[in-house]
Amino acid sequence: MNFDISSFESRAAEVVAWLEHEFAGVRTGQATPGLLDGVRVNSYGADVPLNQVGTVGVEDARTLRISVWDASQVGQVEQAIRDANLGLSVVSDDAGLRVIFPELTGERRAELAKLAKTKYEAARVSLRGARDEMMKAVETAEKNGDLSEDEKFRVKEAIQKKVDEVNQKLDGLFEAKESQITTV
Q: pLDDT digit string (tens) for 43-86?
């Protein structure tokens, strides 16, 4: 009988996707629209994501341009960005809003690198937990007679191979993010 590890593979893919999403929210020296993904704007009595009231684009390396679809919402968008406490300056003009990213100090870069490391470690812990659950399921299947001993070792080897692949992806993501953060 073949043991199905597709649930583990999908959990591993979720861990990678989660880390990519978390790293998108960690600021580097470059202005990226992903940094404003967590900003919620009070629009007509409902809190909605910023991208539902306007478009966010990159104007230059340290500036984002927000074009608000309804001009009456500019004040709410500006307030939402200020309330998000991201350390950004917001300037409104006739074309919408400009969000200016200040230069990162060495101390702030170190804090961001530490934050990225924490998120990286959380992803690795989550992956280990998923692996441990799957290994226990394999042991249980063998004890119940659903797997032979040879099959158990083959499945465990396949799981560990997948863990190694995902860990390499996580390492690559972390190294790239750390490089972005620390590059002046």
A: 888 888 888 888 888 888 788 898 888 888 888 888 888 887 77
- Check if the beta carbon of residue 88 is closer than 8 Å to that of residue 101: yes
Which of 100, 101, 128, 97 is CA-nearest to residue 112?
101
Residue 171, pLDDT score = 95
Kindly state whether residues 79 and 140 are assigned to the same domain.
no
Q: Is residue 94 part of a domain?
A: yes
Residue 46 domain-assigned (yes or no):
yes
Residues 57 and 148 in one domain: no
Q: What is the distance in angstroms between the CA of the first residue and the CA of the last residue of the chain?
A: 55
Residue 94 backbone phi and psi in degrees, to 5:
-65, -20
Residue 61: domain span: 33-100
CA pair distance 150, 108, nearest whole angstrom: 52
Closest CA relative to residue 152, chosen from 163, 123, 160: 160
